[in-house]
Task: structure prediction
Amino acid sequence: MNLTAQDVAKILEIALICWLVVLAAFVFYAVLLRGRKLVELLTDDNNRYIAPERVTELFIILMVAGYYLLNGGSADIIFDEATNSYWMPDIPQSLLVLLAGGKSVFLAGKMARTNS
Amino acid sequence: MSDSTNNGKTTPPAPAVGNAFVQQLGYFIAIIGMLLAVLWIGVYAVQYYEIKPADNAVLGFLAITAIIMAFAGAILWKIVNGDIPLVGIISEPRFDADGNSSKTPGKASLARFQFLLFTFVVAGLFLMLSIEVGQFVNIPANVLGLMGISGGSFVLSKAIGQQSAPPVQPSNPDETDTPVSAPKK
Result:
C-alpha cells in the first residue's frame, strides 16, 4: 500500500482543522444573530442602564484575548531543552492581574446591584 | 382470512409476541455477519495481496479516522438541523413560571461571552501550535491561570445571578401547599 500512517494523520489533521473552522463559523454566526441584543452585554441584569464595570470588563477581555491571539500567533514556539518539549507562548503576569482585577470589579458590581 | 373490523370499527392489530426479541436477534445476527465479512475480507487480502502488518495498522488508523470524523460530522449535522441550538450560546437560560427552561434565550451574558472567547483563543492556539511542531505543546501556568480566572468568574457570576433570580411561581396558585406557620386569614 502506498498510503502511510503519516498520510492518514495528515488527512485527519486537515479534516479536524476544517471541522473546527466550520464550528467556529457556526458559533460566531449564532452570536452575530443576536447582534441586535449584544448591547445586553453592557447593561445590568435588568437591562435598565449601561453598567460601567461591564464596559471596563469587556474592554479588558477584548484586550487580553487580542494580545494573546496576536502574540501567540506571531511569536516563536519556546523549546525547553531540559524537558525536550515545546511550550505555548506565555501571557504577561501584569495582564493576568489586570484581568483578575477587572473580574473582581465586575463581580462586586453584580453583587452590589443584586443586593440593592 | 381474519377480519380486523368489528361493526365497522377498525381494531388495532395485536402486537406480535416477542417482537422486540426477534428484532434484537436480527441486529445481533447482522453484527456477527458484518464482523465475519470483515474478517473474511482481511484474511483474503492477506493471502492474495501480501498485506504487511504495517498496512494493517494504516487500515486501522483509517477506520479510527473515519469514526472520529463521523462523530464530528454528526455534531455539525445536528447543529445545522437545529437539534443543537446555538442561538442562545451567550445567553443566560430563561425559565417560565413552572420552572421549565424556555426556548427563547435570556439576556446576553458577559461571563459566558468571555468564557467562549478565551476557550476559542487558547484552544485554537494550542491546536495550531501542536500541529506546527508535530507534538503536544505544554501550556504555561499563566495561561492556565487565565482559563481558571475565566471559568471561576463564570461560575461565580452564575451563582450571583441565581441568587437574584425571582422565585419560581407555580402555574396554578390553588395547588400550593400552605405552610403550617402561615397566618390564616
User: Anything to note?
Assistant: The helical segments of chain B are 19-49, 53-81, 110-133, 141-164. Residues 165 and 178 of chain B are 23 Å apart (CA to CA).
